[in-house]
Amino acid sequence: MTLTTTSPADSAVTQDGDVLVLRISDASKGGALDDASLKSATTALREIARGEREVGAVLLLGAGRNFCAGGNVRDFASAEHRPTFIRALADTFHDFVTALLDADRPVVAGVRGWAAGAGLSIVLHADIAIGGPSTNLRPAYTGIGLSPDGGMTWTLPRTVGAARARDIILTDRVITADEGLAWGILSRLVDDAEIDDTAAEIARTLAAGPRAGLAATRALLSASATATLRDQLAAEAHAISTNSGSAEGVEGVDAFVGKRTPDFAAARER
């Protein structure tokens, strides 16, 4: 199914089955981050965390030809008091990032065109990011005399290594799609026309999967960067044994033995 866009305020939050679809940029402003859309997306993510919205995965898409070209610099320039204005924008952005974390669902991004500034920060929070020939990534902060937000100084070193992250951020380096794939920022490259649909299909596949198992796997992957091997082995043993007794875990094993496709959705309802 092809996912289309309309105005940023109206289309920021939609749902495709069990997939929450978020578009937080404004195509009419070159793909700049849209504050109202960001707040709507944050509200929806908080609903997931509170158990008020049934969702198995989150899909991040752009509006128009760019995924997200960063903050609206023209708004920065026209603000009556720039530090106060930009602090409010950063707080709103960081509310979104923490809501994405608290929702505890697999995150897939379809990264078409530019992902710059806040756009790159968002891509770095995706579990799986799909790009194409048009995809370009750029920190874009030092180019306007500012420093990063959205967690970029935390996520990028963990993704590409400390030395490369310093080079990218400090020199405001443009990262091509091929580099993004080689360095682990992007997960796959497809034709530009297939980016959104490929990302949507992956999100739907994840949403149909074992939610407890996926949540445990994501938590293990996140913890692995700072855990010792002994601690990680203990965490893995606890997670796999716990999940083996869950309805989804029982269904997965029984389906494998029975040579049938597991129905995790039905298992969750038992």
TrEMBL record:
A GO molecular function held by the record: enoyl-CoA hydratase activity
Entry-linked InterPro entries: ClpP/crotonase-like_dom_sf, Enoyl-CoA_hyd/isom_CS, Enoyl-CoA_hydra/iso, Enoyl-CoA_hydra_C
Keyword Repeat listed: no
Origin: domain of life: Bacteria
GO biological process: fatty acid metabolic process
Swiss-Prot/TrEMBL keywords: Fatty acid metabolism, Lipid metabolism
PROSITE patterns: ENOYL_COA_HYDRATASE
Pfam hit, one: ECH_1
DNA-binding among keywords: no
Family statement drawn from the similarity comment of this UniProt entry: Belongs to the enoyl-CoA hydratase/isomerase family.
Task of the protein: Could possibly oxidize fatty acids using specific components.
Protein name from the UniProt record: Putative enoyl-CoA hydratase
Organism: Gordonia sputi NBRC 100414
